[in-house]
From TrEMBL:
Pathway: Metabolic intermediate biosynthesis; chorismate biosynthesis; chorismate from D-erythrose 4-phosphate and phosphoenolpyruvate: step 6/7. This is 3-phosphoshikimate 1-carboxyvinyltransferase. Signal peptide: none annotated. HAMAP family: EPSP_synth. 3-phosphoshikimate binds at K36, S37, R41, S191, S192, Q193, S220, E335, H362. It catalyses: 3-phosphoshikimate + phosphoenolpyruvate = 5-O-(1-carboxyvinyl)-3-phosphoshikimate + phosphate. CDD domains: EPSP_synthase. InterPro entries: Enolpyruvate_Tfrase_dom, Enolpyruvate_Tfrase_sf, EPSP_synthase, EPSP_synthase_CS, RNA3'P_cycl/enolpyr_Trfase_a/b. It comes from Terrabacter aeriphilus. Its EC number is 2.5.1.19. Residues 23-438 form the Enolpyruvate transferase domain.
Amino acid sequence: MSPAHPSPHPVPTDADWSAPLAPGPLDATVVLPGSKSLTNRYLVLAALASDRSRLRSPLRSRDTLLMAQALRSLGVGIDDVAPEGEVAPGAVADWVVTPPEEPASLRGDVTVDCGLAGTVMRFLPAVAALADGTVRLDGDPQARVRPMGPVVDALRTLGVTIDDEDGHLPLSVAGRGRVRGGAVTLDASASSQFISALLLAGARYDEGVTVHHDGEPVPSEPHILMTVETLRDAGAIVDDSEPNTWRVEPSEINALDVSVEPDLSNAGPFVAAALVAGGTVRVPGWPQHTTQAGDLLREILDTMGADVRLDRSGLTVVGGDELVGIDIDLHDAAELTPTVAALAALASTPTWIRGVAHIRGHETDRLAALTAELSGIGSAVTETEDGLKIAPAALHGGRFRSYHDHRMATAGAILGLRVPGVLVEDIGTTGKTLPDFVGLWAGMLEGAAPGVPVR
Ligand SMILES: O=C(O)C1=C[C@@H](OP(=O)(O)O)[C@@H](O)[C@H](O)C1
Ligand SMILES: C=C(OP(=O)(O)O)C(=O)O
């Protein structure tokens, strides 16, 4: 899809969602579903574990349902079970995950749909290599351009036979029931998920795995730490003491009994809304300690003018008198870029987002998409080699295209809180990681104080 903006005066279509203006300062408590990144790691580890696992409050969204479906087709049992004890508001059924008797008995001769999920397309080939037979992977048209080459080549070095299309989906993994494993060097500067994939499955490889990164700095490092911590929680022995090198010893993976934290990156648009509309947004269950990259939002919102408080009840964000710009390297938390860019377009001082060149390989080329859509509604945005510069400007309504990217769609929702006439194309794309975004957004606005002007 070309990022050039077609018209500043769009005719609404059925596919457009008229982003609601904030009726006044907010007073909302938003219960967010579980983390995509944690849910998909737990699913993979549970599938490779030596016994039955229980995932409490898992995320059920397109990305995690695709992961569950892929694992089911490999012969893993994943069943809904009612949560135990007192049921909290917004609670979902637990997932009980029953692995095959031996990982070597993961079924082959199946086809897996990765959708547009980076976690599925990168993590699954490393798991599929343990299956008994061929596993074919494909996904949405946009998935076919997301980088895969380094993880595919690394798996080959570790003894796996893969037939691929020039480093992209679709590909076929010739599972042989076991993988030799060993040491591999790869360039993971396009995605931390290449490393996470090898580590998550590596404990089940005969020699374990030693992964060495050689190249520009690895992005989204907290996600690698998340991988390491979830592996250690499952009893794996992981050495990450040397920079750019990770070693997972061959071992069994213990069954899990885990509660999935709320998705902090998905909390982004909601807590950002407090800065845009004023008032208060609370997110219960925000963890005190976490490996989620979205935790950086606390610092970002504080710098941009909010009052941010974390205590045992969760996170409380109160909009300040002014929304100001930020100069920030988002290399470690690149998935926050669309949310920060939307806030920046509404800020009274300039913003510079740096260090996120690799998000051109996310769901869409996010730097091009944000530049096109923000400038289409009047923002003074400049695309740089590795980020965006956004200066204050008067914004106007218009169609905000989402490019099948959930975070583009939610960026449009943030802008629409203050800019009349923002039409977000394909709001349903938010279902990639967040079921019922529209309902949650409307619920957040219900508590707003009508008649009090939004700055
Ligand atoms: O491992 C994960 O769960 C993720 C890693 C990151 O990917 P990149 O390293 O490609 O940015 C992040 O942006 C993505 O949303 C989720
Ligand atoms: C980059 C993202 O997703 P994926 O897991 O598909 O890479 C994201 O959610 O912002």
